[in-house]
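User: I want to check something. If I give you two sequences, will you return the structure for each one separately, not as a complex?

Assistant: Yes, each is folded on its own. Here is the first sequence with its structure:
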Amino acid sequence: MLPPSFIASLQGLPGFDRDAFLKVHETQEQLTSIRLNQQKPFSLQGHAFLENKESIPWCTHAYYLNERPLFVLDPLWHAGAYYVQEASSMFLHYILEQITPNPGPLKVLDLCAAPGGKTTLLANYYHNGLVVANETIKSRNAILVENLTKWGADHVVVTQNDPAHFKALPDFFDVLMIDAPCSGSGLFRKDPEAIAHWSEDSVQHCSTRQARILEDSIDCLKEGGYLIYSTCSYSLEEDENRMDQIASIHGMKNIKLDLPAAWNIVTTYSKDHECQGFRFYPDKVKGEGFFISVFQKEISNSSGYYNNHTVTVPASKKELALLKGLFSLPANYDYIQHQNSLLALPQVFAQDLNGLIHHLYIKKMGLTLGEMKGADLIPAHALAMSTWSNLPYQTMEIDESTALQYLRRADLNLPNGKGWHSLTYKNIRLGWAKLLPNRLNNYYPNEWRILNY
């Protein structure tokens, strides 16, 4: 049951219909939606849960499902071929199309990124850019690294920093996404247990925290850059009041957008500055509660200087020669040594990456190729997950049953073979295995294996 104090706090908010809102929460209908990874196309045939899909109107390559399958038993889910994401939050895609319709090599920061839904969307949309995904909490950061590794993008950096640390990178990012930590009331239908944690005090606490995050991070946005602010809360204090805070920052201008009326998304305006934002109610849209707004930084108040004197260590000539002997290395990448591994970093962002390395705590960057052992490359799982078309060693296609055994790190019965192989399911890579005369070594990450299914 929704707390009376919560319902009372929503009275008078734009689009709030008390009876319809209560009714949709009583039904506890569970919606399931996914977004495909455009960089890992696969045949939808043979996937029963995708046969009667319905498109999500505000996001391309995204679908509602008629039923929720057991995703953990779908090898393509483990391979990063799609992401299970709440439909309302995918409205970010529509906003990106409006503010950067033809994106070039832009730099994007997802400041509060875990578990990675919006980051994977940003990575696909800004496929020629540099996407930085930050998460402060260590355990959540590990989940973020896992999801982004599986997604396979080589232009993503994962950091673990307080928002205030980004002050060291003034005028750096073209797009700043702040999906702020919030009281979570928009997810009450999806997660009824969260209702017990809601209180007016928690709303105030989250509002104060959101205000600090905004103040601490705004300097890293370029002049002309865009700030996208969102929450999964209905509260005025976390939504419209935060829009007024952003508008009061010198140089920040609210961006107004037009939406198709058929989408039933509620347009809302803040009290002091009449900033436009958008509210999603589950009794009006096919999705959960969500809020989002867009601003542009017209005037910068900072110098734009940041230290980028960090110098990465390039791969040696011998290492490069060994790599090139195994496969054709893509052009336009720098190949460096990092923590006993070889990494590929987009050349176009070399100086920017140096700035990130100098000022931030990096958990993942670029594409980890693997570790050289003598004349052999011990390939990294990230390399198998990558969207690179040409990889070293041989490829072996396996069926669903074998794929699930591989993902469990259980015993496998594979055809005779020798040496390293990337195992694929429906032509999507799952990971590495090394075939030896009397056994097989499974190199799927032990901490990501399927348990208890």
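And separately, the second sequence with its own structure:
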Amino acid sequence: MKDKNVPRAKKANVRNRTSQIYFHLMLLPGMIFILIFNYIPMGGMVMAFENFKPAKGIFGSDWVGFKQFERLFSNSDFYELIRNTLVISLGKLVIKLVVAVAFAILLNEIKTMWLKKSVQTIVYLPHFLSWVVLAPVVFYMFGINGTVNSVLSSLGVDKINFIGSNDYFQGLLIGTSIWKEFGYGSIVYLAAITAVDPGLHEAAAIDGASWWQRVWNVTLPAMVPIIILMLAIDVGHVLSAGFDQVYNLYSVRVYETGDILDTYVYRVGLQQRQYSFATAVDMFKSIIGLVLMLSVNGLSKKFLNRSVF
């Protein structure tokens, strides 16, 4: 004898699938955008193995194999570019992580709602401004005749060429980037903190734990999965040290410490029209980013029994 509930279950499944269609249609524009601007351009990576000539096109250009990569690794500037990119990118990644987590913990302690929202708005705002807009502000603040140097002069200290000196330029890039992004980056950490069971804090307080002990033993362990996830995402872009920021702030005088892989690709690829070589540099960067991302995921599985993706 057939179960009478079976047809009802089938109808319910059909209705459920039908209702899901609308949600999938909402995702369609975003998927089309990603397909056009992220996946289709991957076909252009074949230029890294060619001597690409625009007049001949991808299919008509001469195949040269790994010649562009051999040129890349034998380039005397390559290791300087890698060093600059890693110093700037890792400086941003590590310090921004620490500052964003600390800010989220402190912000969560503000109980006055209007003050909390005001601080959030002020700190988040720089994220939404382009470096095209912020670069003149940085020049005005840290230029040789800027506000900071005016204050230093009034205190009897010699002026410092922050923007035109190789000794200070990397620190300027890291510091201004953290100022711009740490507030917005703290959003996910603040969400992780609010998800912590208040009963754990109450129990710790009853046991005599101080505020710092509660943060260290309750709050931070609860944030570990989110920290690992954000770290994995950021590590995948470790060779992208922020083209828009560097391009709008650097000059020939600071190429020694400020020139990164992305700005080098721009100069070689678009200005000097060495398309195949620039593609090889960018492909190398993408492969390293993929390897690092998979490595972080593997370490997370091994030591924390958590998979990032």
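Because they were folded independently, the notes below concern the second chain alone. The radius of gyration is 25 Å. The beta strands are 50-51, 62-63.
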